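User: For my dataset I need records formatted as: sequence, then structure tokens, nothing else. Please produce one.
Assistant:
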Amino acid sequence: MPRLPRPLFHRASKIHHLLPLLLPPCRTLSSALNELRWLRQHTLAHPHPQKFPSAYLGHLCHERRRGKPLQYILGTQPFGDLEILCKPGVLIPRPETEAHVTHLAALLAASIPPLSPNPLRILDLCTGTGCIPLLLSALLSPCIPSLNIHALDISPQAISLASQNLRHNIREENIFSSTAQQIKFECADIFNAETFAGRGEWDVLVSNPPYVSPRGYERDTSRSVRNWEPKLALVPGENHRASVVGRGDDEADAAKGDEFYPRLLKIAEEVKAKVVWLEVADTEQAQRVIWMATRSRWWEGCEIWKDWPDGGTSGEWEHFKVGGSKVRVVGEGNGRAVVLRRSAWGRTIFKKIEETSVSAI
């Protein structure tokens, strides 16, 4: 990353004496000014019991200078119309995930008959802050009266924070109070076969699992992510190591990043999911996940969603050939998720994608 020019720091110091501290993590003067404003508002809204506001603001700016994510300092991150509490030890929600959840919810809502007597059953694995099931509930509740959402994570810290987010957003009136009866958070290991015994069938399975390879973690993630966010939520853990050989080999490194997906696909088949959404790191990983899925005859169709799945199209779909199957690519940006479907209802979801894209042309 190139160094920032010294005149920029001089200019920043003339605006506010703390502003130069925010330039290294923000990189631009406009972004630094925004963060300084948010940090000042935070000190006024949440005063420190032992520090004057000016001293507290200076302390927060120094923390930000060290690379601490702004979401951990402020304690929250917007996610749709929700306010998600963020704490060190649990991964910060990303805007691309928000865009995908919003897009998926719109398709689900448009595909289910109004006032359907059957509950929509959604299983969320590796839930983290709980942002995905909470936003799905917020978006689907007005049009689907009966929701049953079950969210799992191996981290007790994550499940505790997800439960706090449920209560917090009910208290802030961002979601209906009935959401407390719709969503259940549970600490569980998805690699334990007993975890899914007797859980029955689920309509939708969603997951944003650890998917970064060890080499990708060192090469592609920012210093802030490596120093502050939980590695367990990014890189598959040692307990679930893939059966690969040739440490240091590109193929073995990729397999390490992919190791959650065979298990997730197996779970999806066990619970007879009709629609599956799995977040991935990039298009290359998406193609590998689709190749895994095509080895089973369970899935009738698959797609890759890019960062912004609502993005327009020039009228022609982008396609990939994966394992002999033609895979449609939706949206703009980089590959960000794999979407699988089966059954007539799953086909309806994919038809809605086509209708939405055609209307946008």
